[in-house]
Amino acid sequence: MTTTTQPFSPPTTFQPALAKWRTQTTVTSADETLAADCGISPVLAAILRLRGYDDNEMVRRFLAPHENALRDPFTLPDIEPAIVRLHQAIENNEPLLIFGDYDVDGVTSTALLVRSLRLLKANVHYALPERADGYGLNTHVVRKAAEDGIKLIFTADCGITAHEPAQLARELGVDLIITDHHDPAATLPEALAVIDPKRADSQYGFEGLSGCGVAYKVIQALLSRYWPEYLKSFSQKYLDLVAVAAIADCVPLVDENRYLAWAGLKVLSRTKKKGLLALMTAAKIDVAKQALAGHHVGFRLGPRLNAAGRMASPTRSLDLLLCDDADESVTLATELDQLNTERQNATREIIKSACEVVYKSTELQQQAILVVDGDGWSHGLIGLAASRLVETFYRPAIVLGVEEELARGSGRSYADFDLHALIEHTSHLLQSGGGHKAACGLSIHPEKIHEFRDLAQQFAKSNIDPALLTPVVEADCLTEGKDITPQLVKELEALEPCGTGNPEASLMLRGAVLVDGLAMGQQKQHLKWFVESDNYRFECVWWNPGKKADGFEPGQKIDVCYVPQLNQWGYNTTLQLVLKAVRKSLQGE
């Protein structure tokens, strides 16, 4: 490819020499005092301070989440008319329709509502959209519901922009309760209730709930008002679904979400739901041998639940979450596991094609936002491809799968660029569009893609600092050799569940000496290194470094960004540093 010095040109591969290395904090005397008061290490104290927990009480609340963190559901907008109408439907045995979404948040939301309302003897029906139908509630669903005698539709994880379906529901005499967590437009749909913590008039005080979290709060309010005797068992039964949604849907794991995810993982570890048990077995998660952590949900359970909606039908995942038969659950979980393998293979092909489009175009390499399109790219996988473009080229990306009459797109952000604002700015070109700051979805006629790309580029150039479009190696805290102990690893586990807003702690070690190393893996694609710092020797592993490992020799001083872990092999447990990035040590930094 042709190289260029234009400010918007990314490196074609991750090169540590081109990356900005940044350590966010170091241990201070205040951290040492806080650590002594709370019985933790100074490194953990420094990381917690960095994340906003800088006094004894805040640290204790973070390390031991409590249900007191749960906010009052009655402060959500429109909660009163919603629960009154739900209660009426249950008491009168009215048929009601739960309409969810095709991703893991929508599927878990639907499962939570169906399961909990069935226990209240509600006459519950449910439906999910197929990806081919597009995101959210549509007029076809409303019209069919009315024809089937449904008098109440309850959306889960969708509906905040469903103006036309809401109008049709009103005309057909169908009440509509919308529960969502996506960004609302200036005007809300005309529904009986629109429950979204992001509404401008919301008094809830926290905008970060998942769609499943919002559904949970509605049922919490319903039970508090009409069936308080069920409230305690409800939390124990369904927090597992809320935790899966919060972690897999990448909502910030802070405030109320920290408790919901933390407590939900504990419920998940002892869940009786046959579907979740079978799914964990298929994902090779053994809760008898390991404590559940955020990465188990984010990288094993979530992708398998999402695979059905991407490769087949989301109803397969919903069937699993509603299933009470052990044998059927195993069959469904095996199917999701196979679909996830197919999804991985198909995604690799799209990613390869999308990256080649960028590599072959000097013009694209210079752009502040990548808008890439390809014929036949599955609209169930383009979001994953967009994420990979962001990781590879360090800028926002939108990937469009083009069909005969319509192109569907999915975008992911970088450098704090607001994709929701971009969708609003280009709405006159789109057939549909929505999302939030970090991610978006859209559909557009193929002949308008070129115009959309140009307008998106202009908007991005005006709203992104080119200096931010570079790779960054960022560590939470600078460490010394004496800090790195098995006890530190165990303390860092207190940060769990980790995910968006509360990431896994990464640390930095500077000036370590590379002592020796060897390749490992069937194809020798991984590295095991031994490094020394302050007379302490550490075993390190570097997964799939590729050419990033070129040029390093024994005896060199290196800086490493790493995550410490305890590696258990048989009866032996060893301390190991998982390397995220390495560079030759720079003096004077």
Radius of gyration: 25 Å
Helix content: 40-55%
* Apparent shape: globular
Major beta sheet, specifics? 5 strands, mixed, barrel
Q: Please tally the helical runs, counting DSSP H or I stretches of 4 or more residues.
A: 19
CATH architecture heading of the largest domain: Alpha-Beta Complex
E-strand count:
17
State the end-to-end distance: 33 Å
Average residue-wise pLDDT = 92
For the biggest β-sheet, the strand order reads 13-14-15-17-16
The fraction of residues in strands falls at 15-25%
Given this structure, which CATH class of the largest domain is correct? Alpha Beta
Q: Catalogue the unreliable spans.
A: 1-17
Q: Structural class, please?
A: alpha/beta
Q: How many structurally independent domains? A: 4
Q: The CATH topology of the largest domain is what?
A: inorganic pyrophosphatase (n-terminal core)
Key attributes of the depicted protein:
589 residues, alpha/beta, OB fold (Dihydrolipoamide Acetyltransferase, E2P), inorganic pyrophosphatase (n-terminal core), 4 domains, 5-stranded mixed barrel, 5-stranded parallel beta sheet, 19 helices, 40% helix, 20% strand, disordered N terminus
Write up this protein:
This protein has 589 residues and is α/β, with parallel strands linked by helices. The chain folds into 4 domains: 20-27 and 471-584, OB fold (Dihydrolipoamide Acetyltransferase, E2P), CATH 2.40.50.460; 69-269, inorganic pyrophosphatase (n-terminal core) (Alpha-Beta Complex); 271-349, no CATH class; 361-468, Diaminopimelate Epimerase, Chain A, domain 1 (Roll). It has helices at residues 29-38, 42-50, 56-63, 79-91, 104-119, 139-147, 163-171, 211-226, 231-248, 256-269, 274-282, 294-311, 315-322, 326-359, 362-365, 382-393, 419-425, 449-463, 486-492; strands spanning 20-25, 95-99, 123-127, 152-155, 175-179, 193-195, 370-375, 397-402, 407-412, 432-435, 439-444, 472-479, 507-520, 526-533, 536-542, 557-569, 572-584. The strands form 3 sheets. It has a 5-stranded mixed beta barrel. Strands 3-2-4-5-6 form a 5-stranded parallel β-sheet, with helices on both faces. Strands 7-8-9-11-10 form a 5-stranded mixed β-sheet, sandwiched between helices. Helix 19 links the parallel strand 12 (472-479) and strand 13 (507-520). Helix 4 crosses helix 8 (211-226), helix 9 crosses helix 10 (256-269) and helix 9 (231-248) packs across helix 12. The chain is globular and about 75 Å long. The chain starts with 19 loop residues before the first strand and ends in a 5-residue tail after the last strand. 46% of the residues are buried.
